[in-house]
Amino acid sequence: MTIHQVDTTTTTGPSGAEIGQRIAGLAFGLIQLVIGARIVLLLLNARTTNDLVTGILNVSQVFVAPFEGILRTNSLHASGAVFDLAAVLALVGWTVIEVIVFAVLAIFRREPA
């Protein structure tokens, strides 16, 4: 009497949609991190003569720019500190865009059999 064992474990890589979700998650996470750093730096009245601060503000400006002008005022100033309303709106906006992208990518996600 011979017993045959069938190997039911198969190793398959992530689907294209899964890879897309991972890449999108990383990209949106970095965008949100840069915008969050901008908000904190401006609130703490960071010195713009510092190269790191200038770099973060310049990079984040690319992602905040589409949301400037939506509100009547883009920022509130108090004793040197700046509350960047446009950056807060951009943070919310990019998060909404992220949710939409994930919803679209979930449509193409492969379900396990």
Report on the architecture of this protein.
The structure is a single chain. The protein is mostly helical. The chain has helices at 16-43, 51-64, 85-107, and strands spanning 75-78, 81-84. The protein has one domain. The longest helix has 28 residues, at 16-43. The chain starts with 15 loop residues before the first helix and ends in a 6-residue tail after the last helix. The mean pLDDT is 87.
Structural class: mainly alpha
When the domains are counted, the total is 1
- Our Rg estimate from Cα atoms comes to 22 Å
Q: Sheet with the most strands?
A: 2 strands, antiparallel
In whole angstroms, the N-to-C terminal distance is 32 Å
- The number of helices is 3
Report the count of strand segments: 2
Key structural traits:
single chain, 113 residues, mainly alpha, two-stranded antiparallel sheet, 2 strands, 58% helix, elongated
Could you outline the blueprint of secondary structure elements for this entry?
Blueprint: H1 16-43, H2 51-64, E1 75-78, E2 81-84, H3 85-107
Antiparallel strand pairs: 1-2
Helix pairs in contact: 1-2, 1-3
Task: Offer a concise description of the structure.
With 113 residues, the chain is mainly α. Helices cover 58% and strands 7% of the residues.
